[in-house]
Design brief:
With 389 residues, this protein is α+β, with helices and mostly antiparallel strands. The protein is built from twelve helices and ten strands. The longest helix is centred in the last third of the chain and has 23 residues.
């Protein structure tokens, strides 16, 4: 992706701090760069694991940034940092050179302060890459015109969206629920047909627990693949060296994973996990087909950003909605406002496979009729600077 961005004359400013891939630092920080702070609330993280991207882009250190996601590492930093962010259809964006844990679902995606910048980034980084053959799935699926052509200030007019019932079954805070309810009203008030609720008729939180992520089985294979492609000076040559290194402290779960590397061709539990993934994906598509919906809408999460602290602290735990990464369906986060104490929260718009043009239209329509983006007070404009959205 970086190579393509450079060829498009994008100025690459820096690599950013982010959550340790496999390390001992608290969530949203690293053993090398330290803790990343949320510019809207310095007692909290800006989401993980793409925490540096979230904090930097929201603070206007850069026009846009890239995130990567096994589970919630694009969508949560986007939500917690008052940004627009897209976790694309699995297979739309190359993972070549990207650290990963999820062979059949790891995703990359753009994060930006407005929808035009997001779409412009997507125009450069989307599509087939021979160095990541997972992207062969995108062949024939991308739009003929640029993604920026789908920016539409009237994008909500005539849209058909469903409010997914199961998205409200996760741990919640009253202020966030109220924000989400107000954001959903924006769709109907601006010409969309809103079907509320629509349901998968399952216990979604329990399903996501019972049907473990394929990355649980794939991650050692994924790590070895990534490390094998690094240069001779790279400090780790394989997953064993990485996970048992002093910085990672050889955590029991990592030791167990190294001793029980599954045979992906024949492991029955892994096969059952893939079948559960396919079943959920089809169930979500079936709901959209049943009501002829353009997308499903729901709060990305129902709690504020996590407080800074140890990974196992009870004050920091929350259960994110992992439906998008498990199914590989695209999800676009839009800012839906701030809690009374100033913490941003995002609304998630989820679509069918390869429906990024539709999501861009809906998100840009929502952006045009809301004023939910604002600069953090901790990073005010420099003298003479002016920003308009």
């Amino acid at each position: 992706m970086i190579k393509w961005l450079r060829e498009a004359c994008v100025v690459i400013l820096a690599k950013l701090n982010h959550s340790d891939w496999y390390g001992a630092a608290s969530s949203g920080g690293s053993t090398l760069g330290g803790q990343v702070l949320n510019p809207y609330d310095l007692t909290r993280i800006p989401g993980s694991s793409s925490s540096g991207t979230g904090a930097a882009v929201s603070s206007v250190f850069a026009t846009a940034g890239l995130g990567s996601e096994t589970g919630f590492s694009i969508r949560t930093p986007t939500s917690d940092s008052n940004l627009f962010g897209l976790s694309t259809t699995s297979g739309l964006i190359s993972r070549d050179g990207q650290m990963w844990s999820y062979i059949t679902g790891e995703r990359g995606g753009p994060m930006a302060r407005n929808m035009y910048d997001l779409a412009a980034m997507l125009d450069v980084i989307a599509g087939f890459d021979a160095f990541d053959l997972w992207t062969a799935q995108s062949l024939g699926k991308m739009p003929q015109s640029k993604y920026t052509s789908f920016i539409d200030k009237q994008g909500l007019k005539g849209a058909r969206v469903g409010v997914m019932k199961e998205a409200w079954d996760f741990p919640s805070e009253p202020d966030v629920i109220e924000l989400a309810q107000q954001a959903i009203k924006v769709f109907g008030a601006n010409g969309a047909k809103v079907f509320e609720p629509v349901s998968l008729n399952i216990n979604l939180p329990q399903y996501l627990i019972a049907n473990t992520f394929p990355s649980r089985f794939e991650r050692i294979h994924a790590i070895n693949h990534y490390l094998a492609r690094q240069g001779p000076e790279y400090p780790f040559k394989n997953a064993r060296e990485l996970l048992l290194s002093p910085g990672n402290s050889g955590k029991p779960a990592d030791k167990e994973a190294l001793e029980n590397i599954p045979d992906l061709n024949h492991d029955p539990e892994y096969r059952a996990t893939l079948e559960g993934k396919a079943a959920l994906r089809q169930a979500v598509i079936d709901v959209m087909d049943r009501y002829q919906l353009d997308a499903l809408i729901y709060p990305h999460k129902l709690v504020r950003a996590q407080l800074i602290g140890p990974r196992d602290s009870t004050t920091r735990r929350y259960e994110p909605n992992q439906m998008s990464p498990l199914t590989g369906l695209p999800a676009l986060i839009v800012p839906m406002g701030f809690t009374p104490d100033g913490n941003p929260i995002g609304l998630e718009i989820l679509g069918r496979p390869w429906s990024e043009p539709t999501l861009i239209k809906l998100a840009s329509g929502f952006e045009a009729v809301t004023k939910n983006r604002q600069l953090p007070k901790t990073t005010p404009a420099l003298p003479g600077e002016r920003f308009e959205y």
